[in-house]
Amino acid sequence: MNQYLHLVASTTSALWPSGGGRWMYAPGATELAVERLSVKDQYETPAQLWRYAIDAFSLDRDAHASSLNAVLPAYSTREDTAVRAGARYWLNPAYGGHCVTIAASLAAHVWVDGCAVVALLPALLHTDWWHDYVMRADRIFYLREKVKFTNPFMEEVASDYMFSFVLVVWEPQPCVVESPWQPLSLPRAGPSDPGQLLRVRRCGACGKYCVLPRYQSEPDHPFVCAALGDPRFASCEAPCSVWLSDG
Ligand SMILES: [Zn+2]
């Protein structure tokens, strides 16, 4: 990008380097179309993903873009967020530091004003937006490859993004077919749950110490070796289990 700016500056006096990688421009200069960009918003989706989505689902508008990274000629910017009725959106939302802005991006586009949306999203199954939107989508593609984002203002990123990704398709109305994928919500086992504890018991017959298996309910008192759930150890003659760390 810096090299490009140097090339432009070589053809006009309206743009010049001010040192330290910063650039100055003459406000109102007619030969420049200046767009201020937030560097952290310029991470770009790999081309194979948006190219596939646009072709397969006839998308016609990029929901979150700048003139630099738009993947369709029609796009909305950070400032221009008004939804276009009936648009078929490509949506690669800004994730923010902790993916906290995804819910708002989905709420602004999915099932709004007759729009269709295809979005690239991290597979975060514990989030509310996953269950509110992704679980009710028309199609979900689970990407076999991880995703690497690049940014023309930054050095090339060495590694793929940490999460797995899905490509999710919403048609303009909520899907009415019941999904074969169901949410599951279970109360957390508490710290005193027997299945979460190392329970040591002493045999009332032989005096040996034993650890109760996690699956074993609390034995009637007094404990005896014969009550152990694992038949290999369920006698006073059996060896005593010990576990040693190799670290
Ligand atoms: Zn015993």
Mind explaining what this structure looks like?
- The chain has 247 residues and is α/β, with parallel strands linked by helices.
- The chain folds into three domains: 1-34, no CATH class; 39-170; 194-227, no CATH class.
- It has four helices and nine strands, in the order αββαββαβαββββ.
- It has helices at residues 2-9, 47-57, 102-109, 128-132, and strands at 15-19, 22-25, 61-62, 88-91, 116-122, 139-142, 165-170, 199-202, 209-212.
- The strands form three sheets. The protein has a five-stranded mixed sheet, sandwiched between helices. Strands 1-2 form a two-stranded antiparallel sheet. Strands 8-9 form a two-stranded antiparallel sheet.
- It is elongated and about 95 Å long.
- Zinc ion binds at residues 203, 205-206, 208, 224-225, 236.
- Zinc ion (ZN) binds next to loops.
